[in-house]
Amino acid sequence: MSQRVIISTNLESEIAEALAECEHDKIFVLTDETTAVKCWPVVKNYFSLKDAKVITIGATDTHKDLDTMVHVWKSLGEGGASRHSCMINLGGGMVTDLGGFAAATFKRGINFINIPTTLLSMVDASVGGKTGINFGGLKNEIGCFQAASDVIISTRFLATLPITELKSGYAEMLKHGMLSSRDEFIKLTGYDFQNADAEHLLQLLKTSVLVKERIVKEDPHEQGIRRALNLGHTVGHAFESKALHDGKPIAHGYAVAWGLVAEMVLSHQILKFPTEDLHRLAEFVYANYGAYHITCDHYDELLHLMH
Ligand code: GLY
Predict the structure, then answer these.
(1) pTM, 2 dp
(2) Which of 146, 179, 212, 214 to mutate for ligand 1's pocket (most ligand atoms within 8 Å of CB)?
(3) Which residue from 72, 89, 136, 163 has the least number of CB within 10 angstroms?
């Protein structure tokens, strides 16, 4: 999988350079209703984007569906997109997943660039070529592996995010830290959201992206080691689905944080994951994400969802 991940220092020149290397006749920018207002204005006056056509879709995961895909395909067609057009996905994981799939399938595939605007999409969704939509009530049921030619990560977009969004993305960083080294795990669980320091977060983010890049390079199609990136997700997805069914949706990263704790309890019991580290993780998650309340009465339902 060939994909360049750039930690931005000069967004305008990095976008211009990425577009120059990505042969194109027309440029389309995919935004959702939030990024159209909060992020597109940051870049729309860049010279390289002066002729770009904007396609806007509904925000949130409820729009990550076939109807929205059809809207994007139609907008590309009506906007005169050819096989040589290029799409820029400007948004969170929903935009980069759906936009990547739209680009991968339109006229059998056009080039695309991801500019993730949430921490979750910066450290996880936009990197590694997983694209897709929800279908038939199942998340990411239809999609394909197709890497963006470039992923340009600019932390300036993080300033527009609510703290819950930041924490949601941070849970995936915690996961990457646990998959990489104890040192990284200690650093990540020492982070203080109350006194958030942008430079400190950037350093942690860089390392986190490298972990993801290393794993997807080794196993782009998830035949082996990439499965490790699902750490915390078997239990986390069950919490997320249960919360959705109960009409009280929870953010993906929060579910992952709680899933990490639950899975590390099992790891402690079965594989001797150290008590000290289990406590460190649980304390960090409890302090920053609170708790997801379940009782033994919910075990069957959760187990069913995990299966
Ligand atoms: N989000 C997990 C992966 O990209 O494999």
Answers:
(1) 0.94
(2) 212
(3) 136
